[in-house]
Specification:
The structure holds two protein chains of two kinds. By secondary structure, chain A is of the alpha+beta class. Chain A has helices spanning about 5-25, 80-95, 125-145, 210-225, 245-255, 260-265, 325-330, 360-365, 415-420, and strands at about 30-45, 45-65, 70-75, 150-165, 170-190, 195, 200-205, 235-240, 285, 310-315, 315, 340, 345-350, 355, 370-380, 390-400, 405-415, 425, 435-440, 440-450. Classes of the chains: A alpha+beta, B alpha+beta.
């Protein structure tokens, strides 16, 4: 775990694999190598609970024999193993049938500029430093309210990694990234029972991570306000999604816009390109080159340049999320959104995907609702991507005359995503990136709430 | 093929001496327990869509995870290199929590039990079956689903197979290995009629081989089931919203038990008193007709294990007996800290993850009611026979699970199919609402994967037909 292998060595391994694949008769191939190290510290009730440290590496090879293709991955980089690995991958490609659309992107399409994207911070945290941060966050959570009686713990993680991609068209690219995160999950209790929530910070730069005290306080604020939650009666009401859960509505949009879901007929947005899918004040971007973004990278999983593009522009569906393969299936060029797990063929996914903030403050959005639901948590998988039908477990707050009246739980909210996007009524001003997908507060005109 | 540990050792190219030394290095006096977990895993996936098998992927990986526990603390490190040097580095990292210099005396391996049984014997690993044999199956699935009904417009199927060799050596001097095969075949169909598009899925598998799918042309039945569900959903009406009686069919609807009570009975949450079930041992948490077990000893089942990932033989644990909470499922850390029996439920996704108490196959024992009478007993409610995923908030006990095939019950008769809807309830209360349990216990087809702390492990569930008097159904029709 102490051995550090230079980037050049990985590039050499990648080139070597491309050469070997060609010797086995492959007409084209690409190789992705990833390595990384992580240190994860979990504390609970003021003491270290779990400490995990690791360094790992993995390599993926994709080969084409004409239009037959297969992918494989291994963590064993020894010469003998790699020779067998190439042979087996090539053999696997013979087992599948020809797919007329398969292949690498055309030469000339690959990324040629690699700007500074601020996604790698070389800060190395000491174990004790991470323990201290996690302990401080948990301590701050306890200190913020006496109703915090227990804890699922605090966690501080740091990781860094490298990606190297090379293909038989001569593309070679690499980048490094890092991530630092801090979270705490306090438990509040009263006579009625226990409630848990959490809060977190995550950033590519250590210096930009929120303070453990701020994270602890916010975690407690979110937790204690859930105490005394009750059910409400079944009704149809306006629903406000807080930014954390509003992001999930964008995640579902990403799934529906994925070229793979579209060409398989497994998306409720088939044939909607260019159509109005939301009101004209809704604009959504995907930006693969946002400085310091958690989804930022100079090139995608096929080596194509990433970029900033409008996905929904004034309510009109402006783009799908495509890689080369799914683009060809739909008769469209790649949007530079190839996502790649090591050893898999590409899929299509977002980079930094966000809704442009509106002009109404979250407070004013709340004030606009006479009776309704403010959702802070959603659980379950009740989403049908083929039809858009949506039904999930929810908790949050009942809104009465523009104010949060009391916490609610054990209810569901249901509708259809297509209608839900069309029913967006107001967008908040409060956009903050805490992940690759981010949204401000969003108010929907009406949904069905099931309860008592 | 035998599941003996010596064969496994040879595969990893690790010597006894290296293991004993690494254990010695980590097991200092302030460390209560330490183990080394070696794993080799090979997996292969072939998938079919648009009538052709165009994707094949393969993955091989091996590594070692070294863990030390001291009091409530766990130190853990892993490596994908298995040299003595790498073992020692990992051992030193795991020992960090003990605040102690390295141990010097090797820990002798004294106990090498042969497996008492093999729950999943195989003549040859499924992974050794030629890829083209799996491709043949997938091609036939496409044809069968389209033959079922011309309204089936797209068929997708995937065959995943995994071959895992594990070997665990512990500071108690135990060394035990196992070979754990796992296969799954999943079919998805999309039906279309007048612009109305619907999906249906069906799948199954277990710790079995290709023959399982070939027997009685089971793979064709999977295709027909997926097609049937998609066609059925073409005529589905909006699901109702609100509290009503719900009848769950047998098999996979047992996901109710997994979410509503299973997670809540995992020992870690109860040791930390963060579960809605903490302090309910010996208390009534279900109606008397409910007896629920977790059983890792069922042959060939997806959730079954000869030994868990700490080398403890799997077992059958009674969780709820005639409505009374009887026990938790445990791993070594939590059993030791809580002073309760080891149940053989210490599981990990891979050498890269720590052991947690996890379910194996969780199901309710059969009751005495005739399933037909259970349906007949409902005046107005829902009959749900197939589900997607579920989720639970351990702390407040609220859980959800989402129906993918369900029908209205009107005056004791099953009438129209309804669109999928999420059901939501409270774990410690919901089983008190179970008033009838059918005599038709059925285990699921072998498709379940459980997620906890970011780790996925294969699990099974099972259920007879049951009647729940009141649960909230999250449809759109208020």
């Amino acid at each position: 775990m102490t051995r550090v292998i230079a980037e050049q060595d990985y590039t050499n391994i990648a080139q070597d694999l491309l050469t070997r694949a060609a010797k086995h008769g492959a007409t084209a191939s690409d190789v992705m190598v990833a390595d990384g190290e992580t240190l994860s510290v979990q504390v609970r009730m003021g003491a270290v609970d779990r400490l995990t440290k690791a360094r790992e590496k993995r390599l993926g090879l994709r080969v084409f024999f004409g239009q037959r293709s297969a992918s494989a991955s291994t963590s064993d980089f020894s010469r003998e193993s790699l020779e067998r690995f190439v042979a087996e991958t090539c053999a696997l490609a013979q087992a599948v049938v020809e797919d007329p659309v398969s292949g690498l992107p055309e030469p000339g399409q690959f990324a040629t500029d690699f700007p500074e994207l601020n996604i790698h911070d070389s800060t190395k945290l000491q174990t004790d430093q991470q323990i201290d941060l996690a302990l401080r966050a948990e301590r701050a959570a306890f200190a913020a309210d006496s109703r915090i009686t227990n804890s699922e713990g605090g966690e501080c993680d740091s990781s860094s990694g490298r990606i190297i991609l090379a293909n038989s068209h001569g593309f070679v690219g690499h980048y490094a990234n890092s991530s630092f995160s801090l979270s705490v999950s306090p438990i509040a209790s009263d006579a009625a029972g226990m409630q848990r929530d959490y809060w977190y910070g995550v950033n590519r730069a250590f210096a930009k991570l929120e303070s453990p005290e701020a994270i602890g306080r916010e975690a407690t604020r979110r937790t204690v306000r859930k105490l005394g939650a009750r059910k409400v009666s079944t009704c149809r009401v306006p629903v406000i999604f807080d930014p954390e859960v509003a992001g999930s509505l964008l995640s579902h949009l990403c799934s529906a816009l994925s070229g793979y879901a579209l060409y398989k007929g497994a998306s409720f947005l088939i044939g909607q390109l260019g159509q109005q899918i939301a009101p004209d004040f809704v604009t959504i971007y995907d930006d693969g080159r946002m400085s310091g973004g958690l989804g930022t990278r100079p090139f995608d999983g096929e080596g194509l340049p990433t970029r900033k593009q409008a996905m929904v522009e004034r309510g009109r569906l402006a783009s799908y999320i495509l890689d080369t393969y799914s683009g060809k299936k739909l008769g469209l060029p790649s949007t530079g959104n190839a996502a790649r797990s090591i050893g898999e063929s590409p899929s299509a996914g977002p980079t930094n995907f966000y809704m442009v903030p509106g002009t109404t403050s979250p407070e004013d959005i709340l004030a606009s609702v006479k009776q309704g639901l403010y959702v802070t948590d959603l659980i379950g998988f009740g989403i049908n991507m083929v039809t858009g039908d949506y039904s999930r477990g929810a908790s949050g707050f009942w809104i009465e005359n523009g104010e949060l009246a009391y916490p609610v739980e054990e209810i569901t909210i249901a509708g259809n995503l297509k209608q839900m996007y069309a029913n967006i009524e107001t967008i908040g001003t409060d956009l903050v990136f805490r992940g690759r997908i981010a949204s401000p507060t969003v108010k929907l005109a009406e949904m069905t709430l099931a309860g008592n | 093929m035998s599941n003996d540990e010596s064969g496994a050792l040879a595969r990893f190219g690790v010597t006894n001496r290296a293991i004993e030394q690494a254990l010695g290095r980590v097991k200092v006096s302030t460390v209560d327990y330490a183990d080394l977990y070696f794993e080799y895993c090979q997996s292969e996936s072939v998938s079919m869509e648009e009538g052709i098998v165009k994707r094949a992927t393969k993955s091989v990986g091996q590594g070692v995870g070294v863990r030390a526990t001291a009091g409530e603390k766990t130190g853990f490190a892993y490596s994908d290199e298995l040299t003595p040097k790498d073992l020692n580095i990992a051992a030193d990292t795991a020992r960090y929590i003990a605040n102690s210099a390295q141990g010097t005396a090797p820990v002798p391996i004294t106990h090498r039990p042969a497996l008492a049984r093999n729950l999943y014997p195989h003549d040859r690993a499924d992974i050794e079956v030629a890829t083209c044999d799996r491709v043949t199956l997938l091609n036939a699935i496409d044809a069968e689903a389209r033959r079922y009904d011309p309204r089936i417009k797209n068929v997708m199927a995937a065959y995943n197979t995994e071959y895992k060799v594990m070997l665990v050596a512990t500071s108690d001097g135990l060394m035990v290995g196992d070979i754990q095969p796992l296969s799954r075949l999943q079919v998805t169909c999309i039906a279309e009629e007048n612009g109305n598009r619907q999906v249906g899925t069906f799948g199954g598998g277990g710790r079995i081989g290709l023959e399982y799918f070939q027997n009685d042309q089971r793979y064709l039945q999977f295709a027909r089931e997926a097609a049937r569900e998609a066609i059925l959903n073409l005529s589905a009406v909006d699901a109702p919203a609100g509290v009503m009686p719900v009848v769950l069919g047998g098999g996979w609807p047992g996901i109710l038990l997994h979410e509503a009570i299973g997670h809540g009975l995992e020992a870690d949450f109860n040791r930390k008193k963060t579960s809605a079930f903490s302090n309910l041992l010996g208390k009534k948490v279900a109606s008397e007709v409910c007896t629920i077990v977790d059983d890792g000893t069922l042959p060939f089942r997806r959730g079954s294990l000869n030994v868990d990932d700490e080398g403890t033989p799997s077992s059958r644990t009674v969780l709820i007996e005639r409505g009374v909470l009887r026990g938790y499922i445990t791993d070594k850390l939590n059993a030791r800290l809580m002073g309760i029996p080891l149940t053989g439920n210490g599981r990990r996704e891979s050498y890269q993850s720590v052991v947690l108490p996890r379910m194996t196959n969780t199901f309710m024992l059969a009751g005495e009611s005739d399933p037909k009478d259970i349906i007949k007993s409902v005046k107005k409610g829902l009959y749900a026979v197939s589900f997607g995923g579920g989720q639970v908030d351990i702390t407040n006990g609220k859980f959800v699970f989402s129906a993918s095939e369900a029908y209205l019950i009107e005056d004791g008769q099953i009438t129209k199919p309804v669109k999928g809807a999420t059901l939501i309830g409270s774990g410690p209360d919901i089983l008190k609402q179970v008033s009838m349990v059918g005599h038709d216990l059925k285990l699921d087809e072998g498709i379940g994967t459980c997620g906890k702390e970011g780790q996925s492990v294969p699990v099974g569930v099972g259920l007879p037909t049951i009647r729940i008097d009141e649960i909230t159904v999250g449809g759109t029709k208020a």
